[in-house]
Write a structure and sequence with these properties.
One of its GO terms (biological process) is cell surface receptor protein tyrosine kinase signaling pathway. It catalyses: L-tyrosyl-[protein] + ATP = O-phospho-L-tyrosyl-[protein] + ADP + H(+). GO terms for molecular function: ATP binding; metal ion binding; transmembrane receptor protein tyrosine kinase activity. By secondary structure, the protein is an alpha+beta fold. It has three domains: 8-78, no CATH class; 106-200, Phosphorylase Kinase, domain 1, CATH 3.30.200; 207-417, Orthogonal Bundle (Transferase(Phosphotransferase), domain 1), CATH 1.10.510. It has ten helices and 13 strands. It has helices at 49-78, 159-175, 207-220, 243-262, 302-306, 315-320, 326-341, 356-361, 374-383, 394-417; strands at 8-11, 30-33, 39-40, 46-47, 119-127, 132-139, 145-153, 184-188, 195-200, 265-266, 275-277, 283-285, 292-293. Strands 5-6-7-9-8 form a five-stranded antiparallel beta sheet. Helix 4 (243-262) runs antiparallel to helix 7 (326-341) and helix 4 packs antiparallel against helix 10. The N and C termini lie far apart (117 Å). The model is unreliable at 77-108, 225-234 and 297-305 (pLDDT under 50).
């Protein structure tokens, strides 16, 4: 009689008779590993037929469920009619897909739409190349209102301009929030032919116009010293723009541009006209219609570049067209420092625009303005180095300006305490 160790089963006959020649009258049985329910074979290495059938059925069920869920999600995404996001103050955006000139613009913005019925358009506060900018009230879900600015793009705008509008939204979404970047509230693109861009409202307008008011205020009050705070009316105090204020504004812009550069973006149109002024002299960079991601930049028509005044453009942009980097923004930042130091003065006042590329290549740089602090002019000259690689990065400019600002604050405090 044959038997197997525990865990094995006998395969073959249980009994056999031994012949005189030493052989058995039947085949000798073997011991085989006892397999669990789902396995078979001598070493339990094969799935049983019942197991294979069960797995196939389960896989088919999973596929059916996935297809069903995908259909439901697709139907919800497609839907019918405009889709509006509930407004709870400032919206939070997720990343968009690539914007394409050959794609219908409106469906690409549905995630950011605000119902235009929530907007109460007030007075016009500016005019741009594609339409007007108005102050407006945005009615929120909690029955309160928020003061906003609405940039309107008219139906007569060209397709290239509409793409710039879409690119501006994309840039603001990619760049995220920063204290010195103008925040996007939402947009309206699904009703009629008009397109609205809704942003934060900055009560003191653009920096160039603001600097002009500071210049007028200074001319009317030439002998008033900074320490005599009680002299100023509260409504005019913000226009008292001296060395400390120069550094304060320049520092904020450098911080905002550092954020843009670290996000691998190029602003492309940095100038005082594209910086907005809020209360307490807080400034925010705006107008991202020409902003461009370094690693996704493709061909651009030259008429896009002609919309930028040459006097703010770096030499490499004037001579090589499209070949520029964030260091080209550094050059423009230097020109804007000149605007700040001259309280809104026009750069290169004595150089015809047509002669500017040759003059810059030959080494001409604007002289130091009359009331410009020497450290600020030194930063301008660093920004205007011909080789982009020799110009300082924005983070170093911000560090230098922060030190200059803090030193000036300490000096003013000492003077006022005497």
């Amino acid at each position: 009689m044959f038997s197997c160790d525990p865990g094995y089963e006998l395969v073959g006959t249980l009994w056999a008779t031994c012949r005189e020649n030493g052989s058995y009258d039947q085949d000798i049985p073997t011991c085989q590993l006892i397999c669990s329910t789902w396995w078979r074979g001598q070493n339990c290495q094969h799935l049983s037929a019942s197991a294979l059938g069960g797995i196939s059925a389960a896989a088919a069920l999973v596929v059916i469920v996935v297809i069903f869920i995908a259909i439901i999600v697709l139907l919800k995404m497609r839907g019918t009619g405009p889709k509006y996001s509930p407004v709870h103050g400032q919206l939070t955006f997720s990343a968009m897909g690539e914007l394409r000139a050959d794609a219908p613009p409106k469906p690409q913005l549905t995630l950011f739409e605000v119902d235009p019925a929530r907007l109460e358009i007030c007075e016009k506060i500016g005019r741009g190349a594609f339409g007007v900018v108005s102050r407006a009230l945005l009615h929120l879900d909690n029955e309160t209102t928020r003061e906003v600015a609405v940039k309107t793009f008219s139906a007569s705008s060209e397709e290239e301009d509409k793409l710039s509008f879409l690119q501006e939204i994309r840039a603001v979404v990619d760049l995220g929030t920063h204290d010195n970047l103008l925040g996007l509230i939402g947009c309206c693109t699904l009703v009629g032919d008009l397109m609205y861009l809704i942003t934060e409202f900055m009560p003191h307008g653009d920096l160039k116009s603001f600097l002009g008011k500071c210049r007028d205020f200074k001319q009317k009050n030439p002998y008033v010293q900074v320490a005599v705070e009680g002299y100023y009316k509260s409504s005019n105090r913000i226009y008292k723009f001296q060395e400390k204020e120069m550094y304060k504004v320049s520092l904020q812009i450098a911080k905002g541009m550092d954020h843009i550069a670290k996000a691998d973006y190029i602003h492309g149109d940095l100038a005082a006209r594209n910086v907005l002024v809020g209360d307490n002299l807080q400034v925010k960079i705006s107008d991202f219609g020409l902003a461009d991601h370094i690693y996704s930049r493709g061909y651009r028509r030259q008429d896009r570049l002609r919309k930028i005044p040459w006097k703010w453009m770096a030499p490499e942009r004037l001579t090589d067209g499209e070949r520029y980097t964030s260091q080209s923004d550094v050059w423009s930042f230097g020109v804007m420092l000149y605007e700040i130091a001259t309280l809104g003065g026009s750069p290169y006042p004595d150089v015809p625009t047509a002669d500017l590329p040759v003059q810059l290549k030959n080494g001409y740089r604007m002289p130091q303005p009359a009331d410009c602090p020497q450290p600020l002019y030194d930063l301008m000259l660093q920004c205007w180095r011909l080789d982009p690689e020799d110009r300082p990065f924005f983070h170093r400019l911000a560090t230098e300006l922060e030190k200059l600002f803090n030193d000036e604050v300490d000096l003013v405090e000492k003077e006022t305490s005497v």
